[in-house]
Amino acid sequence: MVNLTHINKTKKAYSESENSLLFLGIFQDKKLNPQQRTLDDTLGNRLSAAMKLDGFIGKKEEQIHIFGNEVNKRVVLIGLGTQKNYTSDRARSVASNITRFSTDVKNADFSVDGDSFALKKNIFAQAFAEGLVLGSYEFNDYKTKKDDSVKASSITMYGKVDAKSLDKGAILGASVGFARDLGNHPANILTPTYLARTAQKISDNSPKMNCQIFDGKEFKKMGMGAFHGVAMGATEPAKMIIVEYNGGRKTQKPIALVGKGLTFDSGGISLKPPPNMDEMKFDMCGSATVMGVLQAVSELKPKINIVFAIGSTENMPGSNAQRPGDIVTAYNGKTIEVLNTDAEGRLVLADVLSYVNKNYEPTAILDFATLTGAVLVALGNRASGVLGNNNTLMKEVKKASEVSSEKVWELPLWEEYTREIKGKYADIKNIGEARLAGTITAGAFLKEFVDDTPWVHMDIAGTAWGPKEPSYQPKVGATGVAVRLVYQLLENRI
Ligand code: BES
Ligand code: MN
Ligand code: ZN
After folding, report:
1. pLDDT tens digit string along 144-179?
2. Domain 173-493 class in CATH
3. How far is the CA of 383 from the centre of ligand 3 (A)?
4. Does residue 373 line the site of ligand 1, with CB under 6 A?
5. 384 lines ligand 1 (CB under 6 A)
6. What is the pLDDT of residue 148?
7. Whose CA is nearest to atom 18 of ligand 1?
8. Domain spans in the chain, listed from the N-terminal domain onward
9. pLDDT of residue 149
10. Which positions are annotated as active-site residues?
11. Fold annotation for 7-152
12. Mind giving me the DSSP string for 249-278?
């Protein structure tokens, strides 16, 4: 969870207020600003003396910790690098370092000189708030030893800052934290039923939302044979979760956000090898992204219509599990040979994508899935793979990704790749040729289920957990990837 969710703004001057720990930003080769100079005066020039002594000139990653007086007890100077190279992502990581520093020195309430971090500007203010909140993220739900560490509990923000962007950033940071929590819970706790109840709860508290839960027992008669096939091996009930959010005009068609929610992926009969199989509790991180956006939307209430959709089940071997070679019929009528039961995410998404496409006629579909190990081979954990059928939508994704600093890299979906998934006995098969273009053939498979609706698929198998950088990423576990990206994209559409 994130320990910090709110930023208190004040018009007072920090040199006249009491602060137990105050953070000041300094751009490279820039002098102290007037208020910083006043503070320096009241501290008997201790700031300027420390800067001189340390040779501090405000380079990025430079930092000095100074003990002050009774009023401003400690002051930390943070080098921001040159003003020209200051970006929102720098603001985001500096901010998360600030929260962590405060926690490390066992200080719960800290203060920030907003002017010196350029928080008058909306993009800096939003990113800075995201970083402050994300820096307070930790996941200790299952540790029984009493945690007596100090937790960051409140921030006082001084100066002329964009208050609205700060608040938005704090909500987005908390929504990312919420998505991380979902990812980090183990599969024996976070079941499809748990996910469904969580979505239902958010929806119940939002007048503009409406939630529908379909149980796995209904899939077959609904025509969702592909999802049904995956769910067969598990005793834990499968769920399809749909939340409609009506923030826009009544007649406006929605944008659809679809998530892969495999609460555990053992591989099924095509069982995975034991090493790291525990990490397959993260196979629901696509759905965590969708849930994180759901949470953000419930608070920020953007004026747009959205349909959130999650396909959730375990993929287990069992006497009733589907077999390699089985042929299933998806919601859009296409038949699929299941040649590898471990390529299950695409089977679940096949039905959820075609269900959403048919029943909501969305203007665009975005899906999020920990779909292939191959995307790790291609991109490592620095970027998500993106593939789609529409250039305009792809551009929207890339543009939003630049703002959120969550890297995406496009892979091609040329028609040739579709040939690789042509079935021998059925229309298509659920794998391409072994070891070749795995992320692309998975994308080519999904493409069969969205017709001509503009669609982008994001393969987050490398980014949903694992990345430890920049500093606002968690030390362990799920990252909540793309929650911020998607919210930005939604906002760009309004
Ligand atoms: N959930 C996995 C993909 C995955 C693997 C994510 C490793 C993160 C780390 C997915 O269901 C899967 O098993 N994909 C197979 C597909 C193959 C059988 C064609 C894979 O990537 O090996
Ligand atoms: Mn799998
Ligand atoms: Zn999977």
Report:
1. 988 788 888 899 999 999 999 999 999 999 999 999
2. alpha beta
3. 19
4. yes
5. no
6. 81
7. 343
8. 7-152, 173-493
9. 83
10. 272, 346
11. Leucine Aminopeptidase, subunit E; domain 1 (3.40.220)
12. -TTPPPEEEEEEEEEEE--TTSPPPSTTGG
